[in-house]
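Suppose you are handed only these lines of text.
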Amino acid sequence: MAPSQSLEITVAGGGLGGLTAALALRQQGFRVTVLEAAPQLGEVGAGIQTAPNASRVLIGLGLRPEMERIHTAPQDQVRRRWADGSVIAQLALGQRVVDAYGAPYWHYHRADLHRVLLDACVAPEGAGPAVAVHTDAKVVELDRTDPDRPVAITARGERFAGDVLVGADGIRSSVRDLAGFDDTLVFSGEMAYRALIPGDLIAGDPATRFLLDRYHSTIWYGPDKHLVHYMIRNGEYLNVVGIVPCTEQVERDWSGPATAQDMVDDFADWDDRVPAMLSKAKDDVSAWALYRRRRDPLWVDGRVALLGDACHAMLPYQAQGASQAMEDAAVLAEELGAAGRSDMDGALSRYVHRRAKHAGMVQDASLQNMSFYHLPDGPEQRARDEKLRTFDGESDVSYDWLWRGSPLHDPDNEAITYQFAR
Ligand SMILES: Cc1cc2nc3c(=O)[nH]c(=O)nc-3n(C[C@H](O)[C@H](O)[C@H](O)COP(=O)(O)OP(=O)(O)OC[C@H]3O[C@@H](n4cnc5c(N)ncnc54)[C@H](O)[C@@H]3O)c2cc1C
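From them, the structure of the protein bound to flavin-adenine dinucleotide can be written out as follows.
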């Protein structure tokens, strides 16, 4: 029996960060309860990428067979110029990344990845006790009368006590506010269109068919805007994220519905293939105001610990928000699992020590990309494109430290070398 078996952890938030943490903690022998505010668990209808740093964590949790079932493997990262679509730079992903970093760079439908994590959390078989998941369980109050047993209280008045409470409840974390952490939220002035465009429509148009020739991840750079797209579910959908200045309404509402025409209008003067692609979106287009959290290394207060967007929400310009939450999860579980009851407080400070600086660097890198990606045409843009051509990172960021991820103590996890199935 693992030493941590009798210890209880409550995780507020059943997003990608919360579920990865729940699974990692379960595998260390903890009894884990997830409290999710929504009436049903799930994810937004959009794609997600995991670079090797996050793929490594997921594979380390034993999810490789399921990930192989749901992933799409991009072979290159392609960078294009807004005006004519000319290729600025191309970076090999695929086997090169596996050889260099020991784990793959993969794309998925968010719902598929979320489902894989949820199934592994609640499966009766597998290491550690199955995770108890409660939906319609919004945490609205904390009772910290016993500082060693924080109690999360839900809107329905249910009380969940644990040895540690993990606030994985996203960018507008209630746990963060209830525990008295600083308000670090900052609005970026930008918003993201999100859409899943049916792959058969992309394949059916000679202007966009090239997107199916070879799976790749593409970033288009333009003044004040950029566009990212990649295929998921082996060509079933093209996932599109278009970043543009935020409208007043979306800033006010945080997110809301949008249309294909909105996207086309915002990218109307770009290379013809861009509006041709965006016009094929159906009625599931949405717009999301982009907020971030200011870098702040305070993630723990007593037995309350923050994880994921609750402590280090970042702009999505490194595609790393969920991936960093997965790294948090791996390190938190390692530290708590190794410590046992007598040193929970030490374990929580080691968690922050190992993760906060690293995640803060990714927050900074993502923020730097906001100006780096959106330069107007001119000398600075030409210098940027030259830098991308001889790729040593975006802005001051090399992918090397980012994709290697936080060092893990678990030798099985650290030493993962992924082999492609033959
Ligand atoms: C356009 C865009 C593209 C992105 N692309 C990528 C990418 O490719 N790769 C990547 O790694 N990251 C990406 N990200 C970032 C990523 O989506 C987030 O960083 C990640 O989802 C955060 O996970 P989380 O679990 O911390 O929070 P969330 O996903 O927000 O989950 C929080 C959960 O907590 C629940 N909750 C909220 N309040 C409460 C409460 N009081 N009580 C109980 N439950 C509560 C919510 O319902 C939710 O289920 C992208 C983000 C955007 C906006």
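What can we learn from it? The domain at 4-73+104-185+294-372 is CATH 3.50.50.60 (FAD/NAD(P)-binding domain). Residues 12-18, 35-38, 48-49, 138-139, 168-170, 174, 192, 194, 241, 288, 308-309, 316, 319-323, 325 surround flavin-adenine dinucleotide (CB under 6 Å).
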